[in-house]
Structures are given as structure tokens and as C-alpha cells.
Amino acid sequence: MTKGPVAVVTGGASGIGEATSRRLAADGCRIAILDVNKDGGERVAKALSAAGGEARYYACDVADAKAVDAVAAQVAKDMGPAHILVTSAGLIPNTESVMDMDLEAHDRMWRVNYNGTIHACRSFGRQMIAEKRGAIVTLGSINSRLPLPLPAYNPGKAAIERLTQLLAVELGRHGIRVNSVGPTYVMTPPLRAKVEAGQRDMNKIMGVHALGRLPEPKDIADAIAYLCSDQAASITGILLPVDAGWLAAVSYRTYAGGVPWKE
Ligand SMILES: NC(=O)c1ccc[n+]([C@@H]2O[C@H](COP(=O)([O-])OP(=O)(O)OC[C@H]3O[C@@H](n4cnc5c(N)ncnc54)[C@H](O)[C@@H]3O)[C@@H](O)[C@H]2O)c1
Fold first, then answer.
1. Which of 39, 58, 154, 244 could be 211's S-S partner, Cβ–Cβ 3.0 to 4.6 Å?
2. Ligand 1 touching residue 137 (CB < 6 A)
3. What range defines the domain where residue 128 resides?
């Protein structure tokens, strides 16, 4: 029996990365989870293996370029070169101002969210170049498109959209496609913690989405799986919003003249 493609998911121990690992495993991929969360990574890898798939957890801090390189070599040895890479490892902050933010936390967020994306794309992208095929999906956000008061996270997500375009051009000639997904708020552990701490009002959040609801982690995973699939063979360099209509609705619904119907 031929073995399925190797899909590497950074941040695969939780949230969107976990849902993506589950979806790609269901599609027949063999999954390598890179995460700093050992318990979560082992839990997901075990569940996927118990369901008949092949999945391994690798302890890895994506902010450390050398560590990512070493894990990439180990994945190639254990499972073969990567066919698919999804960069879901990330930190999600709370609202703050540029003037008052903690600079150490700011720098750490860039090292994880932005540099970590670069590190994974370089280490696994080299394997894809050698194979002359591959698909990469980065995790952007609605933050890639509009200013929100998250001064380390928001510009970082805009930078990830631009990086995705650069990589699409650099790697396209090697037969590798590079795209991004841009989720709106998704109920994963960081958002759940903020809601429970009273820092986010779910009614207010849902009220600025055209669909009046939020996507599930599975909805983001479905979009990622599509971008990795042969059905998206001519799609590269894009950011696909998966936002329940947030980008369309946020300015419309906050128009000072009001919306032309009764809510
Ligand atoms: N949940 C949302 O509302 C939302 C919206 C838009 C974009 N995103 C993006 O989706 C991605 C996943 O977010 P999530 O909501 O699933 O969060 P999550 O916290 O559930 O998952 C993130 C994972 O990344 C791992 N991680 C953190 N730092 C790491 C590091 N240095 N090295 C390796 N792994 C590390 C965590 O351990 C965790 O397993 C992030 O890039 C986030 O910015 C999330």
C-alpha cells in the first residue's frame, strides 16, 4: 500500500492546528505535529494513531531556527520529506496600546508568530524544493487586513500575508504553492480564556459578522485542506478569509447612520 503524504502542522497540539491535523489525517496524510505543548501534542498524535493513521509529536519551539531545522531533519528521517506544511503555532494577545505594551512580550510574539512561520517555511520548504512539489498554508487572520489594537499581533499577521506572497513567488518555480487562511475569532483555548475572564463579549463579537456566528476550528481546517489539495492546483499567493463575513460586515454594521433594518 502506498503511504500517504507527510503533513507537518506547527501548533498542532491545540485549536486550529489540532483540527487541521485531524482533517488532514482523515484525508490520508501522515501527520507530524511540532509544538511546545507536549501533553497536547502527544494526545493528538495518540488519537490519530489509534484511529488507524500515522502521527508523531515533535517537541519544538518554532522561534528557534536551529531547533526547527533539527526537527525537520528528524521528521524526514522518521517519515520522509514534507509534502504539506501548515504553520499554526502562535501566541494570541489581549488588547493593549503601542505606548504601554511590554516590549519583551512584543518581541517574543514576533519571534513566535512571524519568525516561527519563516523558520518552518525555510526548513520544510527546502525538503519540498528537493522533491519539486509541496503546499504550504500559513495562518493569517482578519488582522492581516485591518488595524485592530493588538500592536504586536496585528502588524505580524499583516506581515505574514505579505511573506506568503513572497514565498509563493520564490517557491512557485519549484512547483510549491504557498497560501494563507485568514480566520476571524475562533473558539479555541485563547479566546475561551478571554471570554471567561470577561475580556471578550460574545454577543458583541457575533454582532459584527454577516452570518451572526463564528466559524468552528473545523471550518478553518476545511479551508486549509482545500488549499493543500489538487483542487487548488492553480491557487497560490492568496489569503483566503474564513471569517463568517466579518470583513464585509465590520464597517457596514458600525456605520454611524445605522443599518437599514431592525436587528
Ligand atoms: N482562534 C482565533 O480566534 C484565531 C483567529 C485568527 C487567527 N488565528 C491563528 O491561528 C493560529 C492557531 O491559533 P489557535 O486559536 O488554534 O490557538 P491555540 O493556542 O489553541 O493553538 C496554538 C498552538 O501553538 C502552540 N505554540 C505556541 N507557541 C509555540 C512555539 N513557540 N513553538 C511551537 N508551538 C507553539 C501552542 O502550544 C498551541 O498548541 C495562530 O497563528 C493564531 O494567530 C487564531
1. 244
2. no
3. 6-187+216-246
Residue given cell 509541496 in the structure block? 134
Q: How crowded is residue 178: how many other Cβ atoms within 10 Å of its Cβ?
A: 27
**In the chain, pLDDT over 90 holds for what percent of residues?**
96
* CB of 181 sitting under 6 A from ligand 1: no
- Atom in ligand 1 nearest the alpha carbon of residue 63: 31
Answer yes or no: is the C-beta of 144 below 6 A from any ligand 1 atom.
no
Q: What is the CATH number of the domain that holds 89?
A: 3.40.50.720
- 40 close to ligand 1 (CB < 6 Angstrom): yes
- How far, in Å, is the centroid of ligand 1 from the Cα of 116? 11
Q: What is the pLDDT of residues 82-117, one digit of tens each?
A: 999 999 999 999 999 999 999 999 999 999 999 999
Q: Is residue 126 part of a domain?
A: yes
pLDDT at 1: 62
Q: Does residue 201 fall inside a structural domain?
A: no
Non-local CB neighbours of 140 within 8 Å, separated by 6+ positions = 157, 160, 161, 164, 180, 181, 182, 239
Domain membership flag for residue 70: yes
Pick from 139, 142, 145, 239 the residue to mutate for probing ligand 1's pocket: most ligand atoms within 8 Å of its CB: 139
Strands (DSSP E) contained in the chain are: 6-10, 30-35, 55-59, 84-87, 134-139, 176-183, 239-242
Q: Which residue has the higher pLDDT, 261 or 246?
A: 246
Does residue 114's CB lie within 6 angstroms of at least one atom of ligand 1? no
Structural domain tally of the chain? Answer: 1
Segment 218-234 shows an average pLDDT of 98
Over range 166-170, report the average pLDDT.
Answer: 99
Query: What cell does 97 get?
Result: 496600546
Instruction: Return the pLDDT at 2.
Output: 75
Ligand 1 centre from 259 Cα, in Å?
34
pTM of the model: 0.98
In a domain, 85, yes or no: yes
Residue 153 alpha carbon, nearest atom of ligand 1: 43
CA distance 82 to 18: 18
